[in-house]
Amino acid sequence: xxxxxxxxxxxxxxxxxxxxxxxxxxxxxxxxxxxxxxxxxxxxxxxxxxxxxxxxxxxxxxxxxxxxxxxxxxxxxxxxxxxxxxxxxxxxxxxxxxxxxxxxxxxxxxxxxxxxxxxxxxxxxxxxxxxxxxxxxxxxxxxxxxxxxxxxxxxxxxxxxxxxxxxxxxxxxx
Amino acid sequence: xxxxxxxxxxxxxxxxxxxxxxxxxxxxxxxxxxxxxxxxxxxxxxxxxxxxxxxxxxxxxxxxxxxxxxxxxxxxxxxxxxxxxxxxxxxxxxxxxxxxxxxxxxxxxxxxxxxxxxxxxxxxxxxxxxxxxxxxxxxxxxxxxxxxxxxxxxxxxxxxxxxxxxxxxxxxxxxxxxxxxxxxxxxxxxxxxxxxxx
Lengths: 174, 198
Hints:
The complex is a heterodimer of chains A (174) and B (198). Helix content of chain A is 6%, strand content 61%. Chain A is mainly beta and 174 residues long. In chain A, strands 1, 2, 3, 4, 6, 7, 8 and 10 form an 8-stranded antiparallel sheet that branches. Chain A has a 3-stranded antiparallel sheet with strand order 9-5-11, with no helix packed on it. By secondary structure, chain B is mainly beta. Chain B has one domain (46-197). Chain B has one helix spanning 2-17; strands spanning 29-42, 46-51, 58-59, 66-70, 78-81, 84-85, 99-104, 110-114, 118-128, 135-150, 159-161, 167-178, 185-187, 194-197. In chain B, the strands form 3 sheets. In chain B, strands 2, 4, 5, 7, 9, 10, 12 and 13 form an 8-stranded antiparallel sheet that branches. A 3-stranded antiparallel sheet of chain B has the order 11-8-14, with no helix packed on it. In chain B, strands 3-6 form a two-stranded antiparallel ribbon. The radius of gyration of chain B is 39 Å and the shape is elongated. β2 (30-45) of chain A pairs parallel with β1 (29-42) of chain B, so a sheet runs across the interface.
C-alpha cells in the first residue's frame, strides 16, 4: 500500500506548466472626428457606429467610430478540454479633459457586449466565452459614448483615456 | 501496522497536493488596457465686413447701357458703354471700391467663399411714390461676376488660408449692369457671402 501511493504521486508531477492568463487589448480608439463647436455641443458615437450630433458641425471626412477592445483567454498548456470562460469587464472612471479653451466630457457609455448595453463606469459586467476549444479564445466588443464639448476660445485635439479592466472569474470544463 | 498507516497518510497528503487543476477555481486575475477617445475641435470661422462694395455715383445716357466693373485688389473701376463716374458735388465723390471682409478661425486652415452668381439691386427714386407713401421704386439693377481675392492666396479666387494667428482677409468685386433710361435713384442691397472651411 505505501508503495502504490508513491508511484501515483510520481505520475502526477506535471511538466513545466504555462499558466492560464487573461489579457485585454485596446484595438481601436473611440473616434469622434473633427467638428466645429461655437460654444457648446455634443456628438454621440454609439457602439454600433450610429452618430448623433447636437450643435456641432462636422468638418471633412475624419474617421468616426466606436472604441474596440478584445479580451483574450489563454489556457496555457493545462488541458485540452472545452471550457466556458467567465470574466468581468469594467470601465474605470473617465475624467473630463481641458485643452486650452475647450473642455470635453464623456458620458452615456454603451457597448455591444451581451448584458452591457449600458456601461456605467466603475461597475462590473459579466461575460462568458462558451465552448472554448483552442488554446486561446477571445471576445471583441465595442464601446461608444457621448462627448460633450464646451468651448470658450480656440480649438484643439481632445484625448480622453478609456481604461478597461477585465477579471477572470472562472474557466470551467464542459 | 503503525508505520503503514503513517505512510498512507503521508501519501494521501501528497496526492492531494498534486491534484491537477481540473475543477473550477475562483480567480482574481485582473488585466487592463487603456483605450482612448479622441476628437478634433475646430474653432468656427467668422467673417466681419469692413468695407462695402461701392460702385460710387454714376451717370449714363438716357438711351445707352453700360456697366461698372470693380476688381478686387485695388484696381480702379472700369466703366463701359455710356456709364461714367459722376460726382454731385465737389465734396461728395466717394471713390468706388471693392468690399472687404476679415476672416478669423482656426490657424492654418483653408477656407472657401461663396456668393450668389448674380443679385438684383432694388432702387429708390428721389420722387415720392404715387399715393405719397415713401419714395417710388426704380427699376432694379443687377450685379454679377462677383470676384474674390484673398490676402493669403490672391490667385486662388474664392479661397484663402488662415495664418498662424487664424487671420486673413479678402476683397469682393463685381460688375454692375446699367440699363438704359434709368431715373435718378439710389440702389442698395445686401449680398450674402458665406465662408466655410475647405
